[in-house]
Amino acid sequence: MAPGMEPILSVEELAVSFSMYDRGLRKADLAVIRSLSLDVRPGEVLGVIGSSGSGKSLLAHAIMGILPPNATVRGEVLYRGEPLTEARLRGLRGREIAFIPQSVDYLDPLMRVGRQVVGTFGTRAAQEAIFERYRLGAGVARMYPFQLSGGMARRVLFATAAVGGDVKLVVADEPTPGLGPDLAAKMMKHFREFADAGAGVLLITHDVDLALGYADRIAVFYAGATVEIATAAEFAAGGAALRHPYSRAFSDALPQNRFLPIPGSQPYAGSLPEGCPFAARCPERTEACLAGDVPMRDLRGGKVRCVHAA
Amino acid sequence: MLEPGLRAVTAALKKPVPRPLVKGPNTRTMVVATVSACLAYLLVVFFWGRFMDPGLYAVNYADKFLAPGAGHPFGTDFMGRDMFFRSIRGLSTSLVIGVIAAAVSSVIGLALGILSAVVGKAFDKVVLWGVDLCMGLPHLVLLILISFMLGKGAYGVTVGIALTHWPELTRVVRAEVLQLRSSVYVQAAYKMGQGRLRVALRHIVPHVIPVYLVGVVLLFPHAIMHEASLTFLGFGLPAETPAIGVILSEAMKHIATGKWWLALFPGLMLVVTVVLFDLIGDGMKKLLNPHSGNL
Amino acid sequence: MRLEAQDVRFRYGGAGARPGGGPGGGSVPEAGAGPGWVLDGVSLRIEAGERVALVGPSGCGKSTLAKILAGYLAPASGAVLLDGAPLPRRGYCPVQMVFQHPELSVNPRWNMGRVLTESWAPDEALLRELGIEREWLRRWPIELSGGELQRFCIARVLGPGTRFLICDEISTMLDVITQAQIWQLLLRVAEERGLGLLVITHSQPLAEKVCTRIVNL
After folding, report:
1. ipTM
2. Are B142 and B164 in contact (CB under 8 A)?
3. Which of B178, B184, B207 has its CB closest to that of C105?
4. Residue A173, Cα to own-chain centre: how many angstroms?
5. What are the pLDDT digits (tens) for B217-257?
6. In sequence order, what are the beta bridge partners of C196?
7. Of the four, B172, B226, C96, C178, which is 20 to 30 A from A25 by CA?
8. Cβ contacts from A onto B, under 8 A
9. Class of domain C2-216
10. Which residue of A has its CA nearest to C145?
11. Does the beta-carbon distance from C20 to B182 stay under 8 Å?
């Protein structure tokens, strides 16, 4: 990290569990996220990748304070060095912290788009300026969410995020599925604009190609834990440039690389094993992997959660 | 305040419930307990009323207009009849009529709902037109009309209620069947060579049954309420039957002279019955829904 | 064997759309053929043993063409022919389809054993080949991951009557390791049985790795 560059957002060993009914009347605590750690610095796009069920989306919901009531959160979320409490979040959401959700379903279906974008902190003038920036015609402001096409809807969500003015952190939860490659690339350019203006962008995505193309660093999630944080260049290079065996397996399985899978599957939430969650599929597994929680440590300019990595 | 876009999210995801949840009897146990308790109460009222000695609420002019007290918890009326036993007896009559009418109505709803989704566009249109017609008219007007045409009495009320309460269930069942029919797994079943009847029995019926059961239970309170209203207005059960509607309508004559107990207790009993049915219906909805992982 | 679409035209809500076979999503396609037509005179031919990728931007009608080829939708005009004859309307269809969302493709109230054997009983060898574990057969759909469910969706349409398999973004919702697993299994089975494959994907690298021919729509 550059000296004096304090991260905008840092997440320290975040854990989320849900109380659920598994069979009949039995109630159980389901640990879905066990240990997520990452930091987002000003001016960068941090891409979060991992398979579904790895805890990606819940991270966004945990940061934005919109987890369902049966969730229990442990660990720390710091925004500019201070814990991000619910009270603090209320003042920041929509102003300094912008959330870009997965779909238009998050817009109020009964309110015209223009009014939603103005929201609580924006002004009419700001909304018009932003619509122009995202090339949304004047008529769009008078439309309802259901009238928007996929691409327009994403741009409206961006406008909603940007209208508050002084955005310092953008949290985007799978902003591109359903968009063609051209539109997705445009969306990515908008994220880049936020970062170039000095904001930190947390980009949670399913699309590895986009993450590699537009993010500065990549955080790899596996079974509710961050296993590695690497630069996008390291991830694109793959193989020895990566620190964690899962990241390497991930990179090897990409169709543009070797398209070679490793056997097995990610453990389910609720039945996460002791120690390293990847141990069962790992070629380098030893007794030490199962001994207990593996801490995240610095290695070659990145971070890794593995006892063997060197 | 949040921006409006976010408000929708938060409204959906967040409720002001403190977390972590307190350990203790879990919510699903509570729902089962509530449903069982409601059911037990209703069964007791039903059987007690059904097989009650009519002497318990017989005419006794010596005890006219007694206020609620030790001997008569709900007081007595202008002929000295015990209001407590009369209310129980009346409720049990209401329950019988309500259950029969709701059952008949629900079968109509189920049949029309399924046929509407399966038979074809023209039939669907006719059914939907019927649904709109029934729901558009004031319920009570239609009820009075039918009951009056059939000569009032238990028969008139039951038929009237049965013929007016099917539209909602028809809609729900129709929507459910349409949704199932367009689901990928049903379409795939056809492509994998499964016949129509087989798909209906194996895929569609098991999904519709829980929806139907909940629908029936939620019909009961409507039916009971309408039976009481109809009787109260004089288009339902005859004046000599001990029915909640009759009791309430008689009470109206004496309420101005300060005989408050005549209306209060039977009225409360009716409200409680209706609310309990609603509780049972809601409870069943939660228990039968496979996706209500956390209530 | 040969599966072909001849000059197929289609639009939603218009003539030919079967009830119940509605569009996948509610949004209006951004790109597409002439006014209102999702497909306007599309022809395509797949031979047995061939693996054809159908690539194109979202909303261009890829999935619609897939559903028409598998008989899920009827074209407004044009024809789908299997060795020159129309697809059978009843019985097991020789053109089968696997979908993007495995969790929507199985009845949530059926256990996996029942799902698997709905139309035929796959033998032990096939299950092993597809990586389906015996123990999974007793579970319910919500107890399995997307990748595991997708293996069942593939196994259940590999009946002896299947000649062509249409794969509509079948690995889009899966993680990359599972995606590579599934394709390896599927390519091996398709090879053994000489199936024709139509692979719909938005990913050019995947199309290049998996298919023998790429068609842009």
Report:
1. 0.86
2. yes
3. B184
4. 6
5. 888 888 888 888 888 888 888 888 888 888 888 888 888 88
6. C164
7. B172
8. 86
9. alpha beta
10. A268
11. yes
